[in-house]
Amino acid sequence: MASEMGVVVLDDPANGRLILYLSGAVNAGSARLLRDTARTCADAGAGVVVDCSQAESLDAAGLQVIIALSRKLRAKNLKLHLSQPSDAVRAVLRMVALGDEFQMDGEP
Amino acid sequence: MAFSDKDLERFEATFFEEAGEHVSAMEDALITLETCPNDTELLNAIFRAAHSIKGGAGTFGFQDLIRFAHVLENLLDALRQGRKRVAPSTSECLLRSADALRGLLDAARLRAVAPDGIEVLREALERELAAPATETQVKPTAPTAKDGGGEGEAVAVTFQPGRELFGRGMDPLLVVRDVLAIGDNGSVRLDCSALPDLDKLDPELCYLRFIIEVRTTADDASIRDVFAFVEDISKISIDRRTPVGERAAPIAAGGASDRMSSKEQAGKTTTSSTVRVSTEKIDKIIDLVGELVIAQSMILAALDCDGADSRARLRDAAEAVGRNTRELQEQVMGVRMVPVGTVFRRFPRVVRDLAARFGKTIALHLEGENTEIDRGMVEQLADPLTHLVRNAIDHGIEPPAVRAERGKPAEGRIVLRAAHQGGRVIVDISDDGAGLNIERIREKALALGLLDRDADADDHTLIAFIFAPGFSTAQQVSDVSGRGVGMDVVKRSIEQVGGVVSVSSVAGKGTQFRISLPLTTAIMDGLSVRIADQTFVLPLLSIVESFRLKPEHIKTVLGAGEVVRVRGDAIPLVRLHRELGIAVEAADASRSIVCVVDTSSGRVGLLVDELLGQGQVVIKTLETNYRRIDGMVGATIAGDGRVALIVDPQGIARRATLGRGKESEHVIRQSN
Lengths: 108, 672
What we know:
The structure holds two protein chains of two kinds.
Chain A: E1 6-12, E2 17-26, H1 31-43, E3 47-58, H2 60-75, E4 80-83, H3 87-95, E5 103-104
Parallel strand pairs in A: 2-3, 3-4, 4-5
Antiparallel strand pairs in A: 1-2
Chain B: H1 5-35, H2 40-60, H3 63-80, H4 88-109, H5 118-130, E1 153-160, H6 172-181, E2 184-191, E3 209-216, H7 220-226, E4 235-239, H8 279-303, H9 307-336, E5 337-339, H10 341-344, H11 347-357, E6 361-367, E7 372-374, H12 375-396, H13 400-405, E8 411-421, E9 424-431, H14 438-447, H15 459-464, H16 487-496, E10 500-506, E11 510-518, E12 523-531, E13 534-539, E14 543-548, E15 554-557, E16 561-566, E17 569-575, H17 576-579, E18 593-599, E19 602-608, E20 610-618, H18 622-625, E21 632-637, E22 643-647, H19 649-656, H20 661-671
Parallel strand pairs in B: 6-8, 13-22, 17-19
Antiparallel strand pairs in B: 1-3, 1-4, 2-3, 5-7, 8-9, 9-11, 10-11, 12-13, 12-20, 14-18, 15-16, 16-17, 18-19, 21-22
Helix pairs in contact in B: 1-2, 1-4, 2-3, 3-4, 3-5, 4-5, 8-9, 11-12, 12-16
């Protein structure tokens, strides 16, 4: 069974950003936690790097929270960058062609 | 929307149940496919079954299952698209794959390692898939999907999932992936225009809309098939004139399932309810509950009235409650009923495999598959039926050459038939084989000491010996049958659910077993009896007769304990109060009643103090509410609110006669 989502937020003041580490299954079961964490990040007034290297999966519920976070940040002239997406996450993001929404490692 | 462990356990249990159904459906279709290798609908059905299993396995992370189902799915996809031909070897390979899926499901359920041979079979499937197409390969008559190559028509599918889709445990991305899989050069545009601000976003609702563009030869119906699990709460439109857009990114090459990791393949199957009840049935039940509420109001109103008026109103209300309760009971019991076909469906495969193994040609005919049977009975029926069918194949149906010599068609015939009859379910298992060898049964019964040499036993009596423990007349023991282990178990299994099994046979013509089962295991007809100050219930079906005991009818036989004479026969007598450890005052045997019950080891007289009356009782399991009690089948709540234990005559007889053994039985016979 896929492991539950883990979420850790680290402050990276040197680069003026927060790093949001996601692990396990980012899905409907964990979307509320992700949404609440994303709100906290958005309110911090810094760009956000979402590290998905340990994310085992990403479903539509998780995806829409990340998109909403990206939009919230953009409204504040801040950016969301998806870092080191796991194969599972990369496959989802490629499938739905989200290049306009945020930057991702390895993508133009 | 966090799922508790209990939720996940429930989802997982649902997955295993539905996956099992998918494997059975797949197996049925594969058997039919052998005679209709070009039937695209069958291939589609098999593909969908494998696909659903893989999807569900993905949800729970059963990696071995996912890996195997993925390869199987790829081969099935090639077959349904006509890229490969269904050869006999393919069919065999696919049937073995169905077995493998069962094994993998069991392993996943038990958190055990995958069964042996899975990898070998997986590699065989991959080899089959990789083998080049031959000229003999057949294109299906109505292809519904398109493989790579950029052929087909550009189709734009707009998919707007219902807001509550997540609540069903479904991921729309999986549906999108499936749509892409039916064609080539696919792309997806994600419409997030309905997505609210992060602060207002409800994570349990789906705000996304997908525009999927794909080039495919699949027709609209096939495309809509992909949405089968979500269409009731989603908006789906298919536009065949829209050219494939340029904006969306092309999908990376590779198998459909490569596009997402297996972990992401949340299962469609987990959302379906495991109990499928028609809305009409539910509406009827709700109506009846409403009637009961009204009746309750009538009772309350009657209590406010005076004297005779109150009594009359109470009587009317009680009648209404009784009427509605009976009807409600019938309706609720109906919810538990499933078609007997759920048991029958395993037999085409059993017959196919065993007939091939024994070099026999056998046609299986199934009749009355829609006859409904209690859900709890299905599992109890499966093993006995399997045993009887295996016996029919192994010992009943003769080899083709022998049949030819006897003037029979080379192809043997086994019929499984179910029907409702007199408030019971009757299941017949008949074959047109050699029939039971009565003489051999007689010899065996004599050899085992079950029959006196000078006894004048008729065929019916002799045939009944096949249900004796350790009785077998098979000349050759196979691993299928003939070890003498089974028919007694068959009888006991059926009796445990209140059923009766009988057999008739005509030499050279065939054998028929008839299983008669009650409609339900949850409610039964019982006879309430008193023992000291306690009430017990005896299953009415097992009671042959009851009579007031005369002390002179009781005899004590050496090694056999007390017996009671009934029309010349001596049957073991069990004083239930003694057996159950109930203290009684000095018993006056002449006031006691003997209830003669039928058990698999013969008739037994159960001594009780009084017969209280008969009626239907609702069986409550002891294990759930207390613990198992040897000799008791369950408990029920009597009209006065007290708990009454339901006696298992078989268990009581076994318990009471423990240690008496065959020697004592022999003594009893001699005493007659």
